[in-house]
Amino acid sequence: MPRTRAIPRQSLPDVITNDLRERILSGEIAEGETIRQEALAEDYDVSRMPIREALKRLDAEGLVQLTNNRGAAVTSHSLSEIGEIFDLRVLLEVDLFKRAIQQMTAADFNECDRILDAMEKSYDAYDVGRWGSLNNEYHMALYAAAGRGLSNEILQRVNVQSDRYVRMHLSVMEQREPAKKDHRELLSLARAGRVDDACDLLTRHIQRTKEQLLAMITATRKTE
Known about the structure:
The protein has two domains: about 10-75, Arc Repressor Mutant, subunit A (Orthogonal Bundle), CATH 1.10.10; about 80-224, GntR ligand-binding domain-like (Four Helix Bundle (Hemerythrin (Met), subunit A)), CATH 1.20.120.530. It contains nine helices and three strands. It is about 75% helix and about 5% strand.
């Protein structure tokens, strides 16, 4: 019988962090839900040490809030905070896109095409988790040519917060086709060097998601 490969001890926090992040972003662990270290240690069949490290990392990302009773709770954003997340995306992404368009090469466009093809397969398979990851990868590929490392770092932190809401928008509100159309058009406008039109579309793309999400979440919270 082939031996199972053990995960190196130093990689346990990475593995657990990644899995917990995905469970939060997918909605499996809901916002506001309490996470107990003891229960997680039992779930993953590990000691509490890698659990504590994973929760510290997710706390630094803003996905959980550590509590004093050896546990944590999934961060629950107010409507105002959710709106702010998407407003920050507009500020950062439009600036990056504007800077990137004139610097994009054939290789950049080909990479964006590759990701879009993969995204459309995830649309067809209704794989929201895969779509969420590729959506972030696509947007970052659009802006890569700007060469703005610090802005990209800040944007990635914002995107960790927005990802679960973007997935909610896609899965609950059935927004696959509008998203697919926008993503193709963004790349087409960038290829044509139409900077203003591309940035206007990107602004509308993010703002539409924000407005629809806020309306949906407002209605949901009123019924809870």
